[in-house]
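Many introductory courses stop at the sequence. We go one step further.
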Amino acid sequence: MASVKCPKCGAAVAIDAGTKFTKCTFCGSEIYIDRSGAGFYYIIPFAVRENDAIGIFRRWAAGPSRVKDLDRKAEIASVKSAYFPVYMFKRKINGREQVFVEPAASTTLPGLHQLKIPAGDLKIFDATFDKGGAELINPDIEMFSYLNNLPGERVEQALVFFPIWKIDYIFEGKKYNVVIDGSSGEVFSSIFPSRSSIGYMLVAIVGFIAFVGEGLLATFNLSIALMLMGITLIGVFLAALVVARRM
């Protein structure tokens, strides 16, 4: 049977081959074990609750790049809380400490390669931590696979369970999903129903053609051309307003 040193108290902790998680029998600390050695594993509590996450989603869905009325017409199919594993690497580079975050589990969910560890929110994960029913996603990517690509001098490396909300929603018969950072409320989505730009393009093309024609007319009769340009300008503005409200 192999053993590792507890990163908190330094005691030798016996482990079986293939063990990923264990508890120090001396100080009670939970320990994460990787081929690179033993380290703490942390967890970040949820700062965004379920109702808040739904509200954040609705406000995001009302954004200008989303299809009109997505905030009202999107049918929420499920709201799930989870703790997603990431590796946190603290490295000293040119005398300054920098933090690198890499995913510890394979995923197709959007945004999970862009998570940022908030300062001061890390809690050492032990048996007393209340997960509140959130799923704990186990890592399936080894820490050592990142180590050779990191610059600088090692300061700390740890596994961190990051809080996320996964919201699945349906719009016009198609299913989409977003991920909401359970710490900061940031929204991640790679595919969503977007507002069409065809209407704006048609308005712009018609307006351009009209202005070109009126410019040519100005060489013969300036006053009539200016009057038509004014009418065209108002027409383009009103047409764009109609497109914005309907699309």
